[in-house]
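Interim report, section 4.2 (structural modelling).
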Amino acid sequence: MEKPALEMEASALWERYVEWLYQHKELGLYVDVSRMGFSDGFVKAMEERFAKAFKDMEKLEGGDISNPDEKRMVGHYWLRNSELAPSYYLKKQIDETLEGVKAFAGDVISGKIKPPPCPAGKFTHVLSIGIGGSALGPQFVAEALAPDNPPLEIRFIDNTDPAGIDHQISQLGAKLSSTLVIVISKSGGTPETRNGLLEVQKAFREKGLDFPKQAVAITQEKSLLDTTARSEGWLARFPMFDWVGGRTSELSAVGLLPAALQGINVDDMLYGAALMDKATRKQSIKENPAALLALCWYWASNGIGSKDMVVLPYKDSLLLFSRYLQQLVMESLGKELDLDGNLVNQGLSVYGNKGSTDQHAYIQQLREGVSNFFATFIEVLRDRPPGHDWELEPGVTCGDYLFGMLQGTRSALYANKRESITVTVQEVNARTIGALIALYERAVGLYASLVNINAYHQPGVEAGKKAAADVLALQKRVLAVLNEASCKEPAEPLAVETIAQLCQAPNQVEMIYKIVLHMAANDRALFAEGSRGSPRSLKVYTGECNVEELYD
Ligand SMILES: O=P(O)(O)OC[C@H]1O[C@](O)(CO)[C@@H](O)[C@@H]1O
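Predicted structure of the assembly:
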């Protein structure tokens, strides 16, 4: 009888390794699933589901409405092979956008397009404003592929944290005058991105700079951002297509423009992705690396996300891969309902940083603690560019240590019956990064079919956005109430419970206390008496009577 994979002797394990090893020759990419415990019986039992998943992906690529809730096609695969687009019009849009991105980046790098305050100069920096899928891909790619001295250096604003925004602007300093600002938002209305834009526009005004002459928008046609950019005459606008989701947009203008401006070869990224797309269309689990990943995810987590996926790239430049995958996988698979409307609460949790750094952070728990995960090692064979290596000690380089750490951790986990997948690439370059993106996009698509969910919408995010808007609306009411009390003679400091009554929101008293605490920390409210840690003892006022706000 076949021994369980996690208890095999060395020779049987070697057989299993050889039998299951996947190699993509041209990409120099391997997927090893031998350290996952699935049996042949499990693979057999999954074949029918996979047959359906392959068909679902075929229909998706053919232009079906594969995102039924939003009534949208799902076309990120067409971006790297526009011949696949279901209409000539879409193909033309893809080709023209790609050409436009490359031509614009080329003109900026050559200095044909230059910042107005520096007639003799060139753009030196990019400031990219966006969040979620409109930031994570460009951040991952910049970290992985930007050369040491890129033609334009990139910085990111990906939050509505004022101190974080100030930091980015002050790091640019005088270089703001030679900074190209790219605002990325598919919807064109995401509050964090809008706030980043408003803050940056203010910084431009304060320095007497002409923002539109240094600004580019990447957004859906006719979105608020698009209309603003058009009416203000921004330097350029590039489209985000309705049928490309934020988390799968890295190989659209969203990722390609920032990459091209940093001197990264975007054709190579697209080519790598196209090669991987071709490989992952194969309708045989063993010969399809994305199907192998989806199979392992299903096996490890019982098809219900019962285990987490720890992603460990052993390469500094791949640091952000785990963060990028976190959104791709969790926003796609974390769903309450399946496609038939049943309550399923699906998902697959992803976390990770990089090896060997994480060996000194949490591998202790992975090896000996709670066994609620499976690992994915990302291995890079080429340590450094050729000609730069040297031996730290006889016969051993620094890269050999990194290799040893990865192999040692993989073996140590296996010895304690902890499962792992290893994805190996020859080197980190534009082609392999494109291929890795395409590999995981397809694995997510296949897995979503296996568990019968829509991977391409994100209804859960809306609830948080709405709740945040409610908090801001409540804050405005609190301010109005405080303002009115402060305009009385003498001013009347109010208890938080009284504020809640006056706002007609007695059930929101805790939120009102938090709002007041936040305003006080930012000198927008004052405490007449009481201790901040004893909410009931507080008496609050604004310190000044703002008549304008009162009658607003
Ligand atoms: O590109 P947008 O529309 O600004 O959205 C940013 C992100 O917000 C989300 O809609 C929700 O977090 C993501 O799916 C998306 O990538």
